[in-house]
Design brief:
This protein is α+β, with helices and mostly antiparallel strands. The protein has a single domain (about 5-75), classed as SH3 type barrels (Roll), CATH 2.30.30.140. It is about 25% helix and about 40% strand. It has 1 helix and 5 strands. A 5-stranded antiparallel beta sheet has the order 3-2-1-4-5, with helices on one face. A hairpin with a 2-residue loop joins strand 4 and strand 5 (about 50-55). It is elongated. The model has no long low-confidence stretch (mean pLDDT about 90).
Length: about 80
């Protein structure tokens, strides 16, 4: 299974963009989207360092809501049973 993370473009230099998601910044290649018009503020799905698809802000937000929901049980402390 592959997982793509929605990130917001903060800066573009050539085919490389500095992108941010949840406070984490990464350099992302825009080479696969060279035919798309991308600008600072746009959201892209990223996978292993490559932007693979431009998405709307609503799609990015709903994807992060699903990720947060999936991770919520993992963030809850587990109960210990004393014997």
């Amino acid at each position: 299974m592959c997982l793509a993370i929605p990130m917001q473009i903060k800066n573009i230099e050539g085919f490389t963009a500095r992108c941010e998601a949840k406070g984490v910044e990464r350099d992302v290649s825009l080479f696969m989207l060279c035919d798309d018009t991308l600008a600072v503020g746009d959201f892209v799905l990223t996978h292993v360092g490559y932007a693979i698809q431009k998405v709307s802000p609503e799609e990015a937000e709903s994807t992060w809501a699903l990720f947060d929901e999936m991770l919520a049980p993992a963030n809850q402390p587990t109960a210990t049973i004393e014997v």
